[in-house]
UniProtKB/TrEMBL annotation:
Residues 190-336 form the Histidine kinase domain. The keyword Chloroplast does not apply. This is histidine kinase. One of its GO terms (biological process) is cellular response to phosphate starvation. It is an enzyme of class 2 (transferase). It is found in: Membrane. SUPFAM superfamilies: ATPase domain of HSP90 chaperone/DNA topoisomerase II/histidine kinase. The keyword Transmembrane applies. PROSITE patterns: HIS_KIN. One of its GO terms (molecular function) is phosphoprotein phosphatase activity. InterPro entries: BphY/WalK/GraS-like (IPR050351), HATPase_C_sf (IPR036890), HATPase_dom (IPR003594), His_kinase_dom (IPR005467), Sig_transdc_His_kin-like_C (IPR004358). Its EC number is 2.7.13.3.
Amino acid sequence: MIKSLQKKFIFTAMIAVSVLLLFLLGAINIANILLVSGDVQRNLSMIADREFGIYNIPVEPKQEPIFFQRPKEDAFMSANFFIVTYDKNNKIINIDVSRIPSVDENEAQKFAQNIDDINGRVSKFRYEVRQNDYKKIIVFLDTSAEIISYLRVLLLSGALGLICWLLMLTLVIILSKKAICPIAESVVCQKFSLSDMALEVSDSFLESMALKNIAFETKIESDIILNANSENIRQLFSILLDNAVKYTDENGLISLSLTKSDKNIIIDLQNTCETLPYINPEKLFDRFYRADKARTQKTGGYGIGLSVAKAIVNAQNGKITVNYINNNKICFKIIF
């Protein structure tokens, strides 16, 4: 459930990040298109005015916004364009392709014949028309550099956007566990009767105890409430009782007590054992540790039960200990 919640958190967060990145990248590319298109259009208008014989009267230079500066003479010198000139009868009288090596006169004439507006785009060229009562010129400006600029910014912004997206994904994954921790705790933990659960789980082992003629004593106070993951606590009782049944000899004794003292809840489980392990009892919590290998082969199990029990107790901020009593008993004590 926690994994599912974490995945949903990551998915939702990355959807938001993706939308934001797409908006920013879109804004950057649209701004670039507008700026470059504006520069190209101003260059085209300047060239058309020069070729048509329109010259602006020089004025006192002034500082203009950086994004809207007028085209300079360098733009004219570096531009690739061709011009088709018509007389007043709309007949072609001149085709100038000297400023563009990629177009010949026949191609220029074909482009001019397809023009039906005063400005626009045809193929990779932008065009603009100037005319009076005596002549008309059509200036075609090559916009290959404009297209390359669009693509360059698009690819660069896309690459940066992808890098940012991956970095954000990594950051979201790292922080997701902490982000959902309060929600996870409220979803997983709930108040339940620990007394009822202890009795219920104990009853499920009565048959196994009877097969070995094991006596079972209980001292369970009523109405003890615990706020925890109920399924984990149920598993805890099952592990401890299963372990007790397996390692208690025939005609032995298992005793379970559940009490409440001040703010603490105490679970005490004891079982008799003819031969106690000659090791520190805390070793029993080590994963895969077997106190008696010969006996383990008869009783079965995977050797991880008690380590799981300890993990469950630790997850609930509790404490579990194990001790030997009178050389014939093992006592597990849990405090919540």
